[in-house]
Amino acid sequence: MALNNQKAILQVGDQVPIVTQQSTGTAGGNAPIINSVEMKDTGVILTVTPRINNAGRVQLDIGQEVSNAVETTSSGIDSPTIQQRKIQTRVLVNDGESLALGGLIQETNSIKRAQVPLLGDIPLLGNAFKNKTDGIKRTELIIFIRPRVVRDIKEARDVTEEFRGKISLQTPIQKRRGGKTKVEQDLKRLAY
Taking the CB of residue 79, how many other CB atoms lie within 10 A of it? Predict the structure, then answer.
């Protein structure tokens, strides 16, 4: 919920320390290193400023960011890199009408291998001393927005009940992969 002409912010994430400046003191050979650090907000950040006209149409100034901190690999700076996906736009939409703002799909593949030195090189038996992890991470960010103009307390309650009816507050039951017990799971993992 947001008031007319008032910015609303929804943020779910972390503050990550970023080194912005680094210098060495001038007090001799063992001078300390001085760092200036800035905290950067990461995660899911949504800002919306609604403006409602007399006809019931809603103009929305929208800023959507999804970001996370990853290890820096492109330089020797001891500070994380911030990966970002952003949308910044202004749209005009009717009350209760859905609008697709945009979408972005990202897929990352990774392979990690490790082994016990020498033992991992033995033909056939060496597989018992190796560890291989293949990972595929797919992120789909698709943004839809549907503004609802709320004129009184009854409409506010109706919108709240409609939203409450669409979400489930129960935790789903986790399924075990490959077997009923940990031993069965380990055996199936070794077989593959």
Answer: 19
